[in-house]
Write a sequence for this structure.
């Protein structure tokens, strides 16, 4: 089986980071695999910690490198990047800033971290309305303050029409929050389509769990209250470890949450690897494999790295896992995902396991 799209130069070097791992691993949408350089860095950091030499100053450098790398991935200025550890925390900052009585428009069945924080604001009249992904752009109206959605839906792999959602929001004076956790690392991002991106990096960006970013445009940042502000959110963090008050950073660092140091140490090499990669070539590779599997299963090839199909009793998921394939099931559907470590042999493995 030949890939539908030839790989561009430089992709082989990216794949080399995953040499000898990943065969039969079709679960980047659940948890990414670490590139070799990330494993080396995480191991070295554990040794540094064990020796007593893992100082805060050492981690400050790594946090700065991580922020710089994600700024390149997101295509925004570094001053627009906040760093934390969980998607729901950054969504919670936005949720706490929604005006009393305003409407937030969400996708029916979207991942809970981009929905639940807004539902907790009901006590002050914030209204959350759910529509299908296909109807999202057409459902924005003048009462909508915010559209919150995932660029790639976790349960189905559906890809949102980000430009159409942006245009609809602009037409009605609404803001846009986009979760790119299931997109960044295999899809080129379009920063102009959202007022803020949130992205956890442990899936397609192949980082340890515990490194999440918030990329926020200046006009929207002015509307947000840094409800989680701690010492890391200060203009001078190391002079702001104690009360009674501190000046918060002028940049998006005012939304920083104290970083998970060991996770950042492992994430930096992975983030820098993807920041320097041709993401379009990654996209073409992943999609070619996803479309090949979809076509062979009699499904429509839709240009997605995540392929899902109805599996209400988990029979197909059991067939895959019994054959040694790592896959997942979500919302009554079998789910597989293809990333840089996969090749056409993984498509063939899946088809054999499914009896096709």
């Amino acid at each position: 089986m030949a890939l539908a799209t030839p790989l561009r130069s430089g992709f082989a070097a990216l794949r080399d980071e995953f040499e000898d791992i990943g065969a039969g691993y079709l679960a980047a949408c659940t948890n990414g695999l670490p590139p070799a350089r990330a494993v080396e860095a995480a191991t070295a950091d554990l040794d540094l910690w064990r020796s007593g030499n893992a100082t805060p100053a050492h981690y400050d450098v790594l946090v700065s490198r991580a922020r710089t790398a994600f700024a390149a991935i997101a295509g925004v200025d570094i001053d627009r990047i906040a760093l934390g550890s969980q998607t729901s925390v950054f969504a919670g900052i936005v949720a706490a800033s929604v005006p009393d009585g305003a409407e937030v428009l969400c996708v029916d069945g979207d991942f809970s971290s981009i929905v639940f924080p807004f539902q907790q604001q009901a006590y002050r009249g914030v209204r959350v309305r759910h529509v299908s992904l296909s109807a999202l752009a057409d459902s924005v109206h003048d009462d909508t303050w915010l559209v919150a959605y995932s660029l790639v839906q976790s349960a189905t792999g559906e890809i949102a029409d980000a430009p159409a959602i942006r245009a609809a929001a602009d037409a009605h004076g609404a803001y846009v929050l986009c979760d790119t956790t299931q997109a960044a690392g295999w899809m080129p991002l379009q920063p102009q389509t959202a007022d803020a991106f949130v992205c956890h990096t442990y899936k397609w960006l192949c980082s340890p769990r515990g490194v999440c970013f918030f990329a926020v445009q200046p006009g929207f940042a002015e509307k947000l209250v840094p409800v989680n502000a701690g010492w890391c959110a200060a203009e001078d963090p190391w002079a702001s470890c104690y009360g009674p008050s501190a000046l918060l950073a002028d940049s998006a660092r005012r939304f920083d949450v104290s970083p998970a140091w060991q996770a950042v140490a492992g994430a930096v090499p992975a983030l820098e690897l993807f920041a320097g990669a041709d993401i379009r070539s990654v996209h073409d590779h992943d999609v070619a494999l996803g479309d090949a599997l979809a076509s062979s299963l009699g499904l429509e090839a839709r240009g997605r790295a995540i392929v899902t199909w109805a599996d209400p009793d988990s029979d197909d998921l059991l067939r895959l896992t019994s054959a040694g394939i790592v896959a997942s099931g979500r919302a009554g559907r079998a789910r597989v995902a293809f990333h840089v470590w996969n090749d056409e042999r993984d498509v063939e493995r899946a088809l054999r396991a499914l009896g096709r």
